[in-house]
Amino acid sequence: MLILFLLSLAIPLILGVPVAFSLIISAIVLMSTKNLFTAQLVVQQFIGGINSFSLLAVPFFMLAGELMNKGGITKRIVDVVYIWVGRFRGGLGYVSILASMIFAGLSGSALADTAALGGVLIPMMSERGYGKARSTGIVISSAIIANIIPPSIGFILFGVVSGASISRMFMGGIIPGILLGCSLMITWFFTARKDGLQAVPNTMPAAEKRKIFLEAIPALILPVFIIVGLRGGVFTPTEAGAIACAYALIIGMFIYKGLKVSDLPGILLDTVRSTGRVLFIVGGSLTVSWIITASNLSKDLVSYFHAFVEHPIILVLCCQLLFILFGMVLDIVPIIMILVPVMLPIVKAAGVSLEYFGILSIITMTFGLITPPVGTVLYVGSGISKISIADAVKGAFPFMMVEVLVIVALALFPQIITVPLELIM
Predict the structure, then answer these.
(1) Which domain holds residue 178?
(2) Do 397 and 132 touch, CB atoms closer than 8 A?
(3) Is pTM beyond 0.90 here?
(4) What DSSP assignment string belongs to 210-276?
(5) C-alpha dihedral (99, 164, 408, 325), degrees to nearest 10
(6) Is residue 25 part of a domain?
(7) What average pLDDT values come out for the chain (425 residues) when binned by 10 residues?
């Protein structure tokens, strides 16, 4: 049964069938083996899967990211971070990392982070002699923090598929996101010296610095507001997405004046397209998840991995290795939807916390976004800088290695995530 499921999923993917349809095909094959297939049942499970209040957070945060990009919030974040750390050796590298950490609390999307910050920072870094490969490498490596620090679209999708608490995952992602950012800054400290980058004194008048900081306050408030609201139970993750949209619209249109009414139809259309692609995959995956449960395939999986169930750390490490391999050829959404339903019974049998497993897994899947041959963030970054994929990977290599070390550390020492999570929640 397991081999049949894997073949029915892998063959359409190899033939170039879109992920959503490949998932539906594999669900139909499994249903047919159990004499459960009817077109009505497939449609019922598909629609029932995406009929979720939690999933409303996905289009909300996607829309919020679009509004922030168009509304001038990105520029304010880069400007204010530059007056903090721009004067250090390789200062724009630190700007990239810190701006990504702040922008993560606004967009929840690594692609949005790369497009927004990369479009501003990569040309600036290239002009100052950083080298296009290194500039692209640090931007894309720091951009993946957007999928870790809340709000994270990956956490939302994992929570919907697994039943894990999305609010707890949001809170639990803060420490790993900060740890990853600090690790990148330490690596950049040595890389900047190796590359011979020099410090650039900041001669900007104090009055102008003060003005930049005051202008950036509205952009900096939103991540804090979302985290405090979630922690205090004031609103749910879905409601936080709606609040982020309203806030970004008001700030972008009336304070920063970067948004115009004429921009809204295009922004809404882009959001609808992005959301449609994501939710189509979600619907197909949840149909597969239902038949996996109904056909007792999950019990077969647990029996195959019984030895790993008795060694949770080894099980978690094996899962992360699988996520990295899949991340080289698939985006984060299909990885969540294809692999997580299959792995959940094994993880539960091993007694691993769903929130911990989800946070670590999203970090690992997100790392796949900057790995060849099909890392989407890697392609966006290299497209902005107009360099080859090979050069972008070369520039990102030291940062990729430290990110792998962080993933391994989180797998070997789950307390890094679980202890702060229990204290916060």
Answers:
(1) 54-424
(2) no
(3) no
(4) HHHHHHHHHHHHHHHHHHHHHHTTSS-HHHHHHHHHHHHHHIIIIIS----GGGHHHHHHHHHHHHH
(5) -90
(6) no
(7) 75 81 84 80 81 78 80 83 86 91 77 80 86 92 88 87 88 92 95 87 82 87 80 80 87 88 90 82 77 69 69 89 79 80 84 93 90 79 87 94 94 90 72
Answer whether residue 152 is part of any domain: yes
- State how many domains the chain has: 1
Residue whose C-alpha is closest to residue 180's, from 143, 221, 125, 233: 143
Say what the alpha-carbon torsion angle 390, 391, 397, 403 is, to the nearest 10 degrees: -80
Residue 104 three-state SS: helix
- Tell me how far apart the alpha carbons of residues 350 and 306 are, in angstroms, rounded to a whole number: 9
Residue position matching structure tokens 């999305």? 166
Distance of alpha carbon 49 from alpha carbon 282, whole angstroms: 7
User: Does a structural domain hold residue 83?
Assistant: yes
Smallest CA-to-CA distance from 394 within 89, 135, 184, 190 is with 135
- Give which of 90, 144, 134 is closest to 112, Cα–Cα: 144
Let me know if residue 131 belongs to a domain.
yes
Q: How far is the C-alpha of 403 from the C-alpha of 66, rounded, in Å?
A: 27
Instruction: Specify whether the CB–CB gap between 392 and 378 falls below 8 A.
Output: yes
Whether 357 contacts 176, CB under 8 Å: no
